[in-house]
Structures are given as structure tokens and as C-alpha cells.
Amino acid sequence: MEYHRLLLFLLLFFCHSQLIKTAPSFDDNEFAEFEIADEEPQVSFANNDVKEEQKKVDEIKEDVVREAPKQTDPTEDFSFLADEDEFEQAEKDLETNQGEADTAGKQGDTIKPLTFADVPSHFRSNWSSYQIESIALFVIIIYVINYLYGKTKNYSIALKWFSDNREKLEQQFALVGDDGTSTEEMEGHLIRETEFSYTVWSTGRTGCKGMLTQIKLRKRQDLLGILLNIIRPQLDRVVHKIDMDPNEMDSFVLIFGQRKSVLRAVKEMHDLSVYVTEKKNFEKLQLLPSFCVYAEVAEIVPAIIDSTTVHFLKRCEKYIEYVHISDQYSGAKQQDGQNSSKLPETHPTLIFSFILNSDNDDTSIDELLLNFTFYILERVKNYRLSKEGKIRADRKRQNVQENFLKMTHQQRQEAAQVPAIIDSTTVHFLKRCEKYIEYVHISDQYSGAKQQDKEGKIRADRKRQNVQENFLKMTHQQRQEAAQIRREEKTRERKQKVMEEEDPDRQRRLEKLEQKRDAKAKQPRIKQFKIK
């Protein structure tokens, strides 16, 4: 966390320095503009000398041109053309005048060539136009540094967990760390799924096919993920998924753990959303207020969550997210709009989600969590439901299958009725006028709609009647199950009271009463009819 704060501080400091450099500088002198206006341009003396000499030469040329006299007689206008000596004399005078000008210029000061000083360009004036590029380059450098650091940090955390718990895993499984690709048995492989997810596969144990351990870490290599983690903190997790062999566990579904995590799992998982309900009448378990229990059958709660489990939950409260035990595990629930023609495949599975102790060098917590995983595994293997609980669980699974078949049958009927309404003409019209059509509602309860034929109306009435009957059957069954659960709880309380009775005579009398109740309950019920 300190490293991430340092990166953010450097980024903010660099941006602040660039903004200061780009800020315009203002002069405090209020009369600066008048001073600039009063300044006279400086002219070099060398340039003045050149201009004076050029003026002298021009004046001499004008004098030569003006020496020709004006002629009034038109016959003598072109008489000077016949005199060749006149042109020679003019050329001689021009040459003498130019010679005098050159000598006069040489006698004066010599003209020096113009020189330019090599003034170095200012560094700030060159780099000021590359500030956006420099900021982008600085951000890229920070991103690369953070990526390398986060990638190395996640790998070191995963490798540390695997090295600390490898010995315990090798005691429970014959093969630990198989890569899953080689034909020969390979051990000690920590498979990297992504930069923040690692897996370890362990197999070779009686009663289960194997255990897949997923180490789900924070996205430390992602700079954006770090910023989001500040707003919405996330934790490192270790998830153990154990696939049980068929007939190794009984028919029940159970989940317990932190209330927030359990509620999220109940909404997302298909088996939990169908089979389990919240169980609250377990004050004797003395669970923590932050924990909750969802179960299919009430009798499995005290059988799995015993005193040892409760003691462990209290000790490692902040490291436990949830424990999911199910013989009908099929993964996440289907999204809305996704229809399937058959039930999803189910298999008995145990899922343990723990918070990874990555910031602490104490490895005893990881060892306790792993021991708790195998303890629950053995209890699930050895536990069997009572006869009544087994009947209720099987009936529940049968009802789920029947409801699914009814739903798929209804969907097929609705799909068969669609082509009768939406034919090729309707489809062509919908494509042509797509942006003008909002919806079309057709209902048998609308007074203006066309009535169905006689057979279709009979089928629709029968369908509505079946829906009502199924609802009544389901509610009646739920009432019977609730009454049966209450009777079982009362019977269990009476038996517990008999076991806790200290007086042997009173205990004997209570046992006889319980035997009479059991015998009466087992007798077949006879209905009497009066015939007049």
C-alpha cells in the first residue's frame, strides 16, 4: 500500500511541476511599454559610410548626363552623333570620376563585414512545447514499473502459499500440483491462469475426484485497478473446490458463512436459489451475528455445524467467506433470456472460500483453514439423512424436474404459436417500418381482439386451470413440509429433554411416553364413514 501511495505522489508532483513551468511570467514594471517605445534603433556606422559613398557616385552620374547642351535648330539635333570624339571624352570623364570616388573610399575607413554572435538557445524555450508528451511518457513509465512490481508481488504471494501448504496437501492427496497437460505424473506445478489468478490441482484421495485450489489475488499489476481498489477495496481469496464421487454424499444443499457473501451466492448460484431457505431457529449453535445459514433440510444444520465447527468459525471469523455444500451443484444461474431444453448437469461439490492471509507472516492461519476443509469433507462423507429427510429431499428434486418439464413444454407451445401470427408478410412489414413500431400486444382478455377458435379456447382454459392447481399443490406441500419440520423439532426437543433428565424414574416415564407416541404415529389411520 505504501508503494502505491508513493507512485500517486510522484505522479501528482510531476504534473504540478509541469503546470508551474507553463505558467506565464508577468513583469511588475508598469512603464515597460513606454520604455520600449522610446528606444531608438541602433544603426551601425559601417552602414552609414556605405550609403554616403553610394550617394556620391549617383551625383557624379547625374552631372555627366546633364552636360549635353540644348539645341534649338532642328537640323542640328542629331549633329553630335557624327562627332566620335565627344563620346570618347564623356567616357574618359566618367572613368576619372569613378576613380576619384574609389580613391576617396579607400582613404576613408574600411567597411567591416557583419558578424553574428553564437548565442545558445534556452533549454526551457525548446522543451516547453513537449509537456504533454513528457507527462504521457512519465505515466507510461509509472504504469510499466507498477506492472512489473504487481506481477512479481502476486506471484510471490501465490508461491508462498503453495510452498507453505504443499506438505499438508501431499499428506491428503497422492498427486499435488499436476499441470494437466503432460501424460506423465508431474508434481509441484503452480499454474498461472492470469497475472492475478493461480491454480493448484490435487488428486488421489478416496471419496473425491480431486480438489482445485484457486488463488484469486488483487489486480496489483493494473494501475487502474489500484485506483479502483482505493474506492472499493478487495481482498485476496483462496477457493477450494472439491468434486465428490457419486454416492459419496447424501442429498442435501447447505451454505453458511458471512451474511453478505452468502446472500450474493444465493442470488447467483442455481442450486442455492432453488433448494435452500434461511434457517434461523438455531440459538443453541451460538453462531456469530455476522454469520447466517441457508439449508434445504433443517436436520443437516446441527449435524454439519457442530461445536468444533462453531469454535473454528469464532476463531477465524475474518478469514472465512462461505462454505457451500451441495449434491445439485450446476454453477451460476442462467441469465434472463437464456432458455435451455434440458436441466443442467449436476454433481456433488464442496466449495470453501477463504480470505488469504497475505500481509502476515503467520502460516498457522492457512494451516487451520486447510485442516477445517478436510474436517468438513470427512463429516459430509460420513453423514446420512434420516428416512423422512431423505424422502423430502427426493420429493423436492422430483418437483424441480417436473416444474422444469412443464416450463419447457409451455415454451415449446408458445414457440409453435408464434409462426401463426408472425408470418412472412408481418416480418417484411416489421423490417420496413422498424423505427415506427414500438410493440404489438395480443391478449385473450382484450375486448377488441379476435376470438380464438373453440379448441384453442379449451386449451387456454385448461392451461390456466393447471396453473392454479399446481400453485395449490405447491402451497399445500409447503404447508405439509413446514408442519412436518415443526413436529420433528418438537420430537427432538422432547428426546433432548429426556436425555438431560437427571431423575432416573422420571426419565423412564418420559421414555415410555415417547414410545407410545411413536407407536401411535406408526399405526395406520382409519377413516370412519356413517351409512344411513
TrEMBL record:
Keywords: Membrane, Signal, Transmembrane, Transmembrane helix
Compositionally biased region (Basic residues): 522-532
Region of interest called Disordered, as start-end residue ranges on this chain: 475-532
Pfam families: CCDC47
Entry GO terms, CC: rough endoplasmic reticulum membrane
Coiled-coil intervals: none
Subcellular locations according to the entry: Rough endoplasmic reticulum membrane
GO biological process entries: endoplasmic reticulum calcium ion homeostasis
Family to which this protein belongs: Belongs to the CCDC47 family.
Protein name (database record): PAT complex subunit CCDC47
